[in-house]
Amino acid sequence: MLKARVIPCLDVKDGRVVKGVSFVDLIDAGDPVEAAKAYDAAGADELTFLDITASSDDRSIIFDVVAETAEHCFMPLTVGGGVRELSDIRNLLKAGADKVSINTAAVKRPEFVREAADKFGDQCIVVAIDAKRVDDVDGEKRWEIFTHGGRQSTGIDAVEFARLVVSYGAGEILLTSMDQDGRKTGYDIHLTRTIADAVTVPVIASGGVGNLDHLVEGIREGHAAAVLAASIFHFGTYTIGEAKRHMHNAGIPVRMD
Amino acid sequence: MKVVIIDYGSGNLHSAGKAIERAAREAGVAADISITSDSGEVRDSDRVVLPGVGAFADCRQGLDAVDGMLDALEFAVRDQGRPFLGICVGAQLLATRGLEKTTTAGFDWIKGDVVQISPSDPAMKIPQMGWNTLEVVKDHPVLHCIPTGESGWHAYFVHSYHIRVEDPDDLIAVTDYGGPVTAIVGRDNIVGTQFHPEKSQKLGLSLIANFLTWKP
């Protein structure tokens, strides 16, 4: 049986790990390669690096981080942040990433997803969707895509966008609720379930985890295939092992080996 | 022992190389590992690894474009009987035909077609992406000392297609994804995994170590 995945996410800036609370206040929390090794040893099912380096001059640092991580960790590695061109994807895959996550570039030009999937295969193209609740229409909940760390509205409906990028070949959706991110009160379950049920590919729930029940809810009620969290793991609130045992005890199939 | 990983522009060769390096070290095998698109190196190798990600037709095209590579594979694997490991699409290429998007010829070393997986529950996602256990259909040395079955170790899968073998004798292991899905195929000195051993932590490293010490 396929297991639900637990994925720690490391925000990396200028080659160092940081975790933004709602993407604003950043706290330095160490060396990404060391963190990756620790998560590998702890039984994480995948790792995600989100590169938030601002200056394009310093963006090549992430390639070294990825290459060094791939030397030591024999688990799937997804890298996102600032992916704008096919050459960015090629360079990340060459450095040792297994999947590359596309965010703003997909919003600006969805055809980029098709070009990337055609070139590198659906399985390695993840589209990261940052969605925020907007005013209900006729009692129906709606979410829109936001960019720039949740500050800029695009007017694009999140569910329609998810369907579109999947039709273009996205192999997975990394879905972050901008309302919940950093709040520690759980995923936006309604959003997660709506998108997970609307697309044929796996959805990774992200944004808002504060305790282990939230991981269970993301899978069971949100219909996500994987749960992503950052600070609960980075700050040692819970270990990967504790998370998996909790999910296992709740009846969710997880990999314990 | 010279191990070649064939580079034809597909896949995460860096990871495959590092995983083989680590597995060789742990198994005490002195392996000279080369990531190469030089068909001469493949001819001179002791063990051949063919990775592959993306679409079947693109992989086949990429491999065809490498000068002399198909002949070198035929020589090393078929004529000389050197152990061969295909990974993901590298394993699918062993089949007679790939039916992804278009019909493309495979090596026809293992009879069968590469077809889309069709889980019994339509709500199940395609691709199958993540960790799953193996059910052994037929014992094989590459699975030596690897716990299998529902409570066994896990392998990392990312795929929408799999080989449907014609001869049941070529099926080594399956995984359950709304019904049996091909996980390992094998015949004589040839073995192929639908999952990624280079990404499957201890199961993967053990399987690679077994492959390196395998004497078919």
Short overview:
Chain A is 35% helix and 28% strand. Chain A is of the alpha/beta class. Helices cover 26% and strands 30% of the residues of chain B.
Strand and helix layout:
The complex is a heterodimer of chains A (257) and B (216).
Chain A: E1 5-13, E2 16-21, E3 25-28, H1 32-42, E4 47-51, H2 61-72, E5 77-80, H3 86-95, E6 99-102, H4 104-108, H5 111-120, E7 125-137, E8 140-147, E9 152-157, H6 158-167, E10 172-177, H7 189-198, E11 203-206, H8 212-220, E12 226-229, H9 231-234, H10 240-249
Parallel strand pairs in A: 1-4, 1-12, 4-5, 5-6, 6-7, 7-10, 10-11, 11-12
Antiparallel strand pairs in A: 1-2, 2-3, 7-8, 8-9
Chain B: E1 2-6, H1 13-27, E2 32-36, H2 39-43, E3 47-50, H3 56-64, H4 69-79, E4 84-87, H5 89-92, E5 97-98, E6 104-105, E7 112-116, E8 128-133, E9 135-136, E10 154-159, E11 161-165, E12 171-176, E13 180-187, E14 190-193, H6 201-213
Parallel strand pairs in B: 1-2, 1-3, 3-4, 4-14, 5-7
Antiparallel strand pairs in B: 5-6, 7-11, 8-10, 9-12, 12-13, 13-14
